[in-house]
Task: structure prediction
Amino acid sequence: MGREYSQLGLEERIEIARLSGEGASIRQIAAALDRAPSSIARELKRNRGQQVGYQPAHAEAQARARRWNGSRLDRDPALRTEVLGQLRAGWSPEQIAGRLRRDGPSRLSHESIYRFVYAQIRRHNDFTWRNYLPKAKSRRGWRPGKGGSPALHMRHRVPLAERPGAVLTRLDPGHWEADLMAFSRYGQNLLLLHDRMSRVLIGSPLPSKRAEPVAGALAAALQTLPPACRKTVTFDNGTEFARHYELGALGIATYFCDPHAPWQKGGIENAIGRMRRFLPRKTDLAALDSGALIGMMAAYNNTPRKCLGFKTPAEAFSEQVLHFGCESTSPPSRG
Result:
């Protein structure tokens, strides 16, 4: 029977480098490693660096590079076209991979998509490829977070500790988180509301950051919903929410995060981060028509989410929120 062959490993390459440096012959190295002399000769010839000679790490990298046939996205043009189209639409690599698993057999991991994009940047020195990614970063890594603002006292402020525990389960519709999405031009802000259960996002531009117009915009956004879909709203400690108590007229309870703890309303913080891809800070809201803003909201609400089993927020709203009695979004009749 023929002898079974296995690839040289890094430990064997380290030994080859040591013995070769001590002046051992190819046959002596082969005998020490129980390998064929031809394998050692081929290893020393193919994986030797021109400047540094034979180095184990370099030899290992060279061998791996020869065995690599390219990423799946390089080999499958149809899959590549589909993935790049979804990236352009604002989907993250993890959302794309999850939706592929949901729609059929898993064909791709999110790490493969990240590696493919970063490989194009390195291969072509073309940094426009980073715009395919949610954070548009040209290299992997974490960005340091910013510190929170000091807590401010306001009338009728109720701390988050007094919020009903059922809100944390995300199984009950009508519990919202609110925040402002700020832009570089003075006075331009977008009010965003995020439903904790379905992850549906609604929003509207603000004429001012003052408490009075913010309270009016909050009431206008929520009053069209039936009472079962507007139970609580959670804010941070910004002065723009100082007139939060006016929502009590709609039967809505309001709660505030602890000082320096924006993570306690992580849903809206995450939503703002995702919306930044469509609306970077330098965007001029005055030049943006309402149809374009509605389209961006629709794109967000129709993007699959891992936390929803790769359903979209719109699908989750239809399947879950409507199930809890929110069949209509028209205001209740008066009289």
About this structure: The chain has a mean pLDDT of 85. The radius of gyration is 29 Å. The CA atoms of residues 177 and 234 lie 5 Å apart.
